[in-house]
Amino acid sequence: MIIALLYAILIVAYSIFLLKLYFSWKNIKSNNTEKPGKVSVTVLIPVKNEAEHIELLLSDIDNQNFDEDFEAIVINDHSSDKTLKLCNSFSMDHHSLRILSLPSGKEGKKAAIEYGVKHAKHEVILTTDGDCRLGREWVKSISRAFRREVNLISGPVKYRSTSKGFSKLLNMEFASLIGVGGAMLNSGIPGMCNGANLAFRKNIFHKVGGYSDNKDFPTGDDEFLLRKVWKEEPGSAIFLKDRKSIVSTKPPENLGVFFQQRKRWSSKWKRHKEFYSIAPGIFIFLVYLLQLSGFFHLLINPLSSWNTLFLCFVAIKILIDQYFMKSVLSFLVEPFSNRYFLFLQLIYPFYSLIFGLVANFGSYSWKGRTYKI
Q1: pTM of the full predicted structure?
Q2: H/E run at residue 356
Q3: Which of 2, 298, 339, 366 is such that its CA lies 20 to 30 A from the CA of 58?
Q4: Type and span of the H or E element at 277
């Protein structure tokens, strides 16, 4: 009975929270409908061992439909494959592309971005990753959204679709993260964003000190910067809900890579200091903890009168989740599958609890390096 009552209270709160996110997501404006001003842009691409993908990305950048002045800088983070050779070869025929290499003693994505910002010619900085693909309007779409009051733009990212069921499942789960991050930001809460599609002004980067207070932490180049910009200039960060700005990235190829990636992402949580950053994680952890407890109670006591109330609230939660997911996937031009959605609903409580715990201990691997949490 106690579990059912606690779960009922939390699910009511969760449903209100999710409905707020749903309407916030639906109400995000495209942000680029105004007549664009002249914006000069530098695209930064930090890379480590991206020989398999980098030429496709560089071709996408070379094919951008953008008439204003812009440059692209690849910052090589001590790659041990042919990444640097391929980039140098490409730059010989494309003079708007510059190749930099991190000096000895510096490594990691944050160091690469800081090094790129230092050498960037232009005020507006766009960042993406070496395994990403871009549409022809990517630079134009983001640059149009840089109105005078905007200092940072979080752009949409999705996984490239494959025929594998595991990939389709990941697409849906990843889309939910993008949707929640965009809706929260539109509601005035700087939560999640993705460094594969992030843009900011060089002056705000210097004003907030770049990564000066979190250099010791290898990840978080995106979310920590978002929070610092919001704290310095509240309301000056936006989510760009424009299909032309969507960036696609390679999905994790197997469960092991996925586990390491999500452990890395989840490890950022304990470094957040603001209440609005910490509270949602604790809240969602409790929701899924009680949901699992409720299912366990149902199995051992199937005749309990509280089971009906518990299942009703589970159904309400799933229904609201479904509306939200359909809206986000529609924007990302990705299909919605009831089969994969219901499977996610089944495993997500376990997923949330596992990563809520393992993100606080041990280590993870990333780009051939191992980092302690």
Answers
A1: 0.91
A2: helix 338-358
A3: 366
A4: helix 275-300
